[in-house]
Amino acid sequence: MSSTASTQTGQKAQSLTLVEAIQDGLYTEMAQDDSVVVLGEDVGKNGGVFRATDQLYEEFGEDRVIDTPLAEAGIVGASIGLAQTGMKPVPEMQFMGFMYPAFDQIVSHAARLRSRSQGQYSVPMVIRAPYGGGIRAPEHHSESKEAFFVHEPGLKVVSPSTPYDAKGLLAASIHDPDPVIFLEPKLIYRAFREDVPTKPYEVSLSEAAVRRDGSDISVYTWGAMTRPALIAAENLSQSHGIDTEVIDLRTLSPLDTETITDSFKKTGRAAIVHEAPKTGGLGAEIATTIQEEALVHQEAPIKRIAGFDAPMPLHSLEDYYLPQAVRIQDGIRETVEF
C-alpha cells in the first residue's frame, strides 16, 4: 500500500511503485479531463494484466474504461478515430510484442495524419505498452523494439525509469497534440518506490535527466537499464576510481541532443546501454549524434552494451541476454582504459 507524505517543497506525495504511478497518472488525468479514455484488453473489470488500470473502471465506468477484443489493429484504429472526434484515447497494448498487428495503423495513419492533412488534423493519442525482458515471460512478452517507432517521423517515444517520471511523462504525453508511444519497463514495475506528488504535474518530453554526475565517461541509457547502469557506476567508483556520468534519456524521440553532447564534451568517452538487439538499435543513432556534434572531444571508441542479435531467449538465458551491471562495468572499463 502507498503512504502519503510531503516533499521538500511541502507538496503532498505518495510513495509509489512505477506501475502505481502509471495508475495514479491515468486516474489524475481522467478525473480532470472527461475526454481522456482508456481502452484495451482486460483494462476494465480486471484492471489490466499488471493492474496499471486498477480501479479506473469502478471510478469512471465502462464508457471511459473500455474492455476490447483481442484485436490490436482494432484498438489502435478505434483510438485514431476517437482522437478525431475530440477525445484523448490512451490505448494499452498488453505487451510490446503484441503491437505488430497494429503497426500499420500506427505508422500509416497515426504518425502521418498531421502531415497528410497539412496540419488540419492531429492524433492526440498515447499508446501504452509494457516492454522489455527479465520477468521470465513466454515468447513475444519480452520485446524491446523501441527503434521501430523512433525511426518513424510523427511519433514521440517515451520510456520512464522512475515512478516520479512515469506520472509526469504520462501527463505530458496525454497533453501532447500528437501520438506518443509510451513504453513502460515492466521489469521495474514494482522494483522500488519513490515519492510522487498527488497533484498534477508534467515532466518535459524533450529533456534527458543526469542521474549521476561524472567526469571520466558518459553512459547513456533509459528504462529498466538505468538501474544496472547506476549500480555499475557506483561499483566502478569504489573499485577503480572511475567517475561515470549516467544520462537517462527518458524521451527517445525526440532525443535531447544538447544534454547528450554536453556530457560527452565533458568526459570525452561514451557507452550506450540498451536491452534491444545491438544492430540497428537506438545506440547507433546516439553514437552518430555524438560523432556529428562532438567528434573533436572524443578520446576513445564509443561502446555499445546491448542485447544480442537474437530473439529474447527463454528463462534460463534471459539474464545472460540482458545487460547486467557486471557486463556494463566491463564495457565502461574497456572504454576508459582504451
UniProtKB/TrEMBL annotation:
<protein>
    <submittedName>
        <fullName>2-oxoisovalerate dehydrogenase subunit beta</fullName>
    </submittedName>
</protein>
<feature type="domain" description="Transketolase-like pyrimidine-binding">
    <location>
        <begin position="16"/>
        <end position="191"/>
    </location>
</feature>
<dbReference type="InterPro" id="IPR005475">
    <property type="entry name" value="Transketolase-like_Pyr-bd"/>
</dbReference>
<keyword id="KW-0560">Oxidoreductase</keyword>
<dbReference type="Pfam" id="PF02780">
    <property type="entry name" value="Transketolase_C"/>
</dbReference>
<keyword id="KW-0786">Thiamine pyrophosphate</keyword>
<dbReference type="InterPro" id="IPR033248">
    <property type="entry name" value="Transketolase_C"/>
</dbReference>
<dbReference type="GO" id="GO:0006082">
    <property type="term" value="P:organic acid metabolic process"/>
</dbReference>
<dbReference type="GO" id="GO:0044272">
    <property type="term" value="P:sulfur compound biosynthetic process"/>
</dbReference>
<dbReference type="InterPro" id="IPR029061">
    <property type="entry name" value="THDP-binding"/>
</dbReference>
<dbReference type="Pfam" id="PF02779">
    <property type="entry name" value="Transket_pyr"/>
</dbReference>
<dbReference type="GO" id="GO:0016491">
    <property type="term" value="F:oxidoreductase activity"/>
</dbReference>
<dbReference type="InterPro" id="IPR009014">
    <property type="entry name" value="Transketo_C/PFOR_II"/>
</dbReference>
